[in-house]
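WARN retry 2 of 3 for item q-0093 after timeout on previous attempt; input resubmitted unchanged.
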Amino acid sequence: MAGGTLDIWPLYLFHDNAVTVNFAVNRYTSCELTTRNDKTIILRSEDQKAEEIFHSLDKLLEARHYKLPLAAHIIRFFRPEMGFELTTHSEAPAGAGISGSSSLIITISSAFNKLLECGYSIEKIREISQNIEAQLIRVPTGCQDYYPAMYGGINAIELTVAGLIRKAIPVDLAEFNERIVLAYTGEPRNSGINNWDVTKAHINGSVNVRRNFDRIAEIAHGMRNALEKADWEETAKLLRDEWSNRKKNAPAISTTLIDKLIEVTRKHGCKGAKVCGAGGGGCVFFLVERGAKRQVQTLITDNGGEVLDVQVAPNGVQVNVEA
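OK item q-0093 returned
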């Protein structure tokens, strides 16, 4: 909802009251991890309809390319000695910008953490997952993407010199669910690139980018307070301000379709909207007046977007063990 990109180290260290605000949606990732009696490793992705087989861990480690690189990189870290079958599934559309890959890394890493009895805390799993994703996309990653999968609910992640602190924001979920709409606009053209461009500009001393991030930090801090007070008008105003500042940082974050959907819904109950993730496509989050959700959803569909029927997921990652 606010504060994204600010969560990339070390950007948040340069801004006071740095915080990011997000919430978990019930578009789940899952995995099934089954051990084998031999050394064979079988990786399957149900949503990608892909399968990859290695006759041993050594063969996986020797491979130069992977059909399923996310799963392979996690295995490269945990290095299980036994053979196993790993089947994964994600309900997030391709390039949706709603942290589907981050959620899947948390899911798979939590399963291996349990299987191998590593004893990592959920915060250490977040650190591991963030580093693995950086290896995959080869640019710095933000920290906030993992917290919805870790805890569920509506979150404030405080970004401090002493570390990251997640605090739940107490919001009436029934009320919140009546006011949120999520639309998919298609896979981004440059997923993972926009944030890196902005990060480089910030580190290189761009006065405009630094000023805009000061404002984004202020907005995120204000949005947290507005949500805690259930002040929906202020929340919507801050969402509009956040989107305006974000477009200044990276004009390519929006598209013709995104601009159109925000404009056509604006006069029919949409109080504010913004792109999820790095933009250039993916999902758009709309905050709507109570009672306007169905009308906004219809307008999105009629104008070329795909509505994703979502609610807040109240719980984070869960690991079930079967003998």
